[in-house]
Amino acid sequence: MTAAGAAGAVLPVRALGRPKRRSLAQKLGFAVLGACMAANILFLGAILFFIASRGLGAISWAFLTQVPRDSMTAGGVAPAIAGTLYLTLGAVLFALPLGVACAVYLTEYSPKGWSSALLRVGVNNLAGVPSVVFGLFGLTVFVKYFGFGVSIVSGSLTLGILALPVIISASQEALTAVPQSVREASLALGATQWGTIRRVVLPAALPGILTGVILSVGRVAGETAPILFTAAAFYVRGFPHSPMSEVMALPYHIYALMTEGTHPEMQTRIAYGCSLLLLALVLSVSLIAILIRQRQRKVYHA
Amino acid sequence: MKNRRERLIKYLFAALAFSSLAFLAGIVLVLFLEGLPVFRTVSPWAFLTGRNWYPTASPPEFGALPLVLGSLWVTAGALLICVPLGVGSALYLHELAGPRRRAVLKPVLEILASVPSIVYGFFGMVVLAPFLQNAFALPIGLCSLTASVILGVMASPTVASIAEDALGYVPRSFREASFAVGADRWQTLTRVIMPAAGSGISTAVILGMSRAIGETMTVLMVAGGSAMIPRSFFDPVRPMTAAIAAEMGEAPVGSSHYHALFAVALLLFLITFLFNIAAELVSRRYRLRLGLSR
């Protein structure tokens, strides 16, 4: 045997990634890790399967376009769909400018220093505040202090604050991905800092910011606790007609159907339909965001 | 002239940026202003250690201990599920899955993370609770076990994604050194990579806990709702979030019940705040130890 061969037999030179001998511990351990991953997939599969298989039967054209009838046991959920759209739109309109401005300040104007360190900690903590606490804040400040009452405006503002950290962190990621050389080129041509941000950096970061907006839509549309005391009602006659009116919303409607009312079986059927609708809405929105982001990361790394 | 305009714009951005911080400050302020008045009715000590939560009895009793223990109890149960599931998935994704499998599995976790909590709650109520009730022959399906399972599954994508980031920070040289001395992949994983990523993984677990303890709609729907001190995983509980969400609608504004619920929210906020700060500190130390900046 040659010296090189002997060395190869002792040291796994050939196999930095994948040594030849596999111990029992390794086989078992890897199987357990695979099982952990599989458990997650199984749960997602179970949720999708049960909700889709039992919810599909409830969904029809009438379910999507009509108002509820016969004390919530028949008819459609159109007002709840409309309410969810209004609340989500309002929240994003409120959070988008604030969130992007905060991200621009953090990455462009003050990337280091105490003020941005403080901001980062603040935003991280805002992201960790329990959703029901946002609801209490909205109740105290928007519903009562500003006198907006239980309304679309109060609910949108409350949801908007909850969406802020999502938009800030996605925008920050998008802005930092813009290469420094692009900024320097613009400044070297005599553009001011604001001119550079407006004409060069923001357009380049736009797709990433959009991803953040889409992600926040998915998050906001499914939230229930923040609108419990600020916007939602189990039943409102017809469609909401002003920003100051109470609304029905899909997530709250599911909760109300399961905990209030007098016809549990019929209500559960409608709740299945609502869950499927909400799930389809939120998951398709997040899937779009995930796909856009994957594609962008590929472009950026290439 | 031009300089002045630039500076104005910078201040404008700073003002907008700090307004998001103002919301956090506003939340703290509101919780203190509306929560502290309850201590005119009940002493802080009685509030924290009282075993009876009878807010609508006369005279009312505001002992928050059952609610706090309820939250901690379901969160502890959730940890038993989300730590193996989350950390295991992160290790699987980082160590075992090839690029093609990763490209499919990572979005699966992200989708699992974006399922709305009300849908988890609904699923728990109509599918999981009856299933567990049959499986364990329980008197009721809506109990802390059901809540823990659902919360654990909800928190596991959060844990997985942060733990995976932490694993990514372990330098390649650690792995190469371990292989070079003859360790196989499992030994490298358990004796080199996991210890090196240890505090990063702890950060993931702390943030997962923070997510689970602040979760509202699921526990409101599946935890059973009785404000007792839990003795087993089959007892129904009323976690802090569920108490706030369920009772706020009925508590007259300005009553001691109303203030008591804000005080419970303050307690909840302080707990999650501590978790988040702890996660921040642990991850900062971790980055320093691995020689990473920031």
Instruction: Please provide the count of β strands of chain B.
Output: 2
The number of helices of chain B is 12
CATH architecture of the largest domain in chain B: Orthogonal Bundle
Q: What are the secondary-structure elements of chain A, in order, as H or E?
A: HHHEEHHHHHHHH
Structural class determined from secondary elements of chain B: mainly alpha
- Please state the average pLDDT score of chain B: 90
Number of domains of chain B: 2
Question: Quaternary state, please?
Answer: heterodimer
Roughly what fraction of the amino acids of chain A lie in strands?
A: under 5%
Radius of gyration of chain A: 26 Å
Per the CATH scheme, the topology name of chain A is MetI-like fold
Largest interface: A-B, 96 and 94 residues
CATH architecture of chain A: Orthogonal Bundle
Task: Offer a few descriptive terms.
heterodimer, A: 302 residues, mainly alpha, MetI-like fold, two-stranded antiparallel sheet, 73% helix, 1% strand, disordered N terminus, B: 294 residues, two-stranded antiparallel ribbon, 12 helices
Report on the architecture of this protein:
The complex is a heterodimer of chains A (302) and B (294). Chain A has 302 residues and is mainly α. Chain A has a single domain (81-301), classed as Orthogonal Bundle (MetI-like fold). Helices cover 73% and strands 1% of the residues of chain A. Chain A is built from eleven helices and two strands. Chain A has helices at residues 3-10, 24-55, 61-65, 78-109, 114-128, 131-145, 152-177, 180-188, 193-222, 250-259, 264-301, and strands at residues 68-69, 74-75. Chain A has a two-stranded antiparallel sheet with strand order 1-2. In chain A, a hairpin with a 4-residue loop joins β1 and β2 (74-75). In chain A, α4 (78-109) packs parallel to α7 (152-177). Chain A is globular, with a radius of gyration of 26 Å. Residues 1-15 of chain A have low confidence and may be disordered. Chain B has two domains: 2-30; 66-289, MetI-like (MetI-like fold, Orthogonal Bundle). The radius of gyration of chain B is 23 Å and the shape is globular. A two-stranded antiparallel ribbon of chain B has the order 1-2. The two termini of chain B are 37 Å apart. With 294 residues, chain B is mostly helical. In chain B, 74% of the residues lie in helices and 1% in strands. Chain B has helices at residues 2-35, 44-49, 65-96, 99-114, 117-136, 144-168, 172-180, 185-196, 198-214, 217-222, 240-247, 256-289; strands at residues 53-54, 61-62. Chain B is built from twelve helices and two strands; from the N terminus they run ααββαααααααααα. Classes of the chains: A mainly alpha (302), B mainly alpha (294). At the A-B interface, α2, α4, α5, α6 and α7 of A face α1, α3, α4, α5 and α6 of B.
